[in-house]
Each structure stands twice: as structure tokens, then as C-alpha cells.
Specification:
195 residues; mainly alpha; two-stranded antiparallel sheet; 5 helices
Length: 195
């Protein structure tokens, strides 16, 4: 450092005497001017921060209000009502497709056999109790004929047993044969069994 610089430094660092009558306290006291300037800057920064926070809170409240209004508006269902009108035949569109039922109902015959005649085609509308087809049942017909033959045979046996019982009753009354009385209960039991 040169002697001139040392002198300038000494002049700059000299402290002015405190003069209570002087109004130049800020001009002669650089520490005090710095503190006023710092307070002013801090106050401006605080005002800016407060303004930024207030605008952020305001924008969030405004967005929340818009969101609530939008949610309430979308919660209500909107329904467009249209009255049906007859359309012209020219508007008909034919598209390929097929339909099928959700539930299928199987139909079973009461007996097994061969279909003799169809009365209703597949897919036609039917009513309850309507005859759909005639089934030819040769096995069932044969069983029916056998049952009828067995019935006729049993009726003939009944008639024979009735006649035999009547004859034995007549012989019992006339008491012609003692040896034949032993077989009489079997004829009566046959008649009782067939009745």
C-alpha cells in the first residue's frame, strides 16, 4: 500500500463526532442508512411473499369451487326424450345376423318310437298343450296287445273259476260226492283271488 492509499483509508474510516444537533445522522452514519434500506427491502419482500401466497390460496379456492360445481352438475343424469314416429318403408335396412334364445327347453316324448307326422315346424309359435307330432310306437303297441291278451285270459280264468265254484256249491248242497269236497276250497279261493 502506498502512503496516499493509507491516508485515504484513514479518512474514510474516521468517525464523525456525535453531534446531537445535527440532522445528518443518516448521511454521516452509513450503518444506520443500511439498516433503513434493509428494512425497506425486507418489507417489500414480505409484501411480495404475502401477495404470492394470497394469490395462490385464492386460485386454489377458486379451482376447488369450480370443481365442486362441475361435480354437482355431472351428478345429475341428463335424459334425452324422443317421441317415436313411424318411418317410411324406404328407411329399412337388412343386415345379416342370427338370433338365439337365452334358455333352451328340451322337449321329451312320453314314450319312445318313430315320428309318424309333424304338425309344427321348428321355430313356429306353439300354445300350451298343442300336439306337435304323432309318434308311431310299435314296441308299445305290442306291449298293449300283450296286456289286452292277458286281460282276456284272466277274464276267461275268472269265468271258469266262477263256473267251477257254482258247480261245487251245487254239489255241496246235494252232497253227492264226499271225496270231491276236499278240492272245493281251491276253486273258491281261485274265484276270490280273481275278483
Amino acid at each position: 500500500m502506498t502512503p496516499n492509499e493509507r491516508g485515504d483509508l484513514a479518512i474514510a474510516t474516521e468517525v464523525a463526532p456525535n453531534d446531537p444537533g445535527s440532522n445528518n445522522s443518516g448521511a454521516n452514519n452509513p450503518g444506520r442508512a443500511f439498516s433503513k434500506r434493509a428494512i425497506a427491502i425486507i418489507a417489500i419482500l414480505a409484501a411480495c411473499a404475502t401477495l404470492a401466497i394470497a394469490s395462490g390460496v385464492h386460485s386454489r379456492l377458486k379451482a376447488e369451487t369450480r370443481l365442486r360445481e362441475s361435480a354437482q352438475a355431472s351428478a345429475l343424469p341428463y335424459v334425452d326424450v324422443v317421441s317415436p314416429k313411424a318411418s317410411a318403408d324406404a328407411d329399412e335396412i337388412t343386415l345379416p345376423g342370427s338370433t338365439s334364445a337365452f334358455n333352451d327347453t328340451p322337449i321329451y316324448a312320453r314314450t319312445s318310437g318313430y315320428v309318424k307326422h309333424w304338425y309344427v315346424d321348428i321355430g313356429a309359435h306353439v300354445k300350451r298343450g298343442q300336439l306337435l307330432a304323432t309318434i308311431e310306437t310299435p314296441e308299445l303297441d305290442q306291449q298293449l296287445q300283450q296286456a289286452r291278451a292277458d286281460l282276456e285270459n284272466d277274464e276267461a280264468n275268472l269265468q271258469l273259476a266262477t263256473t267251477t265254484a257254482a258247480r261245487w256249491q251245487h254239489l255241496l248242497e246235494t252232497d253227492l260226492s264226499r271225496t270231491k269236497k276236499r278240492t272245493r276250497p281251491s276253486a273258491i279261493s281261485i274265484r276270490n283271488r280273481l275278483s
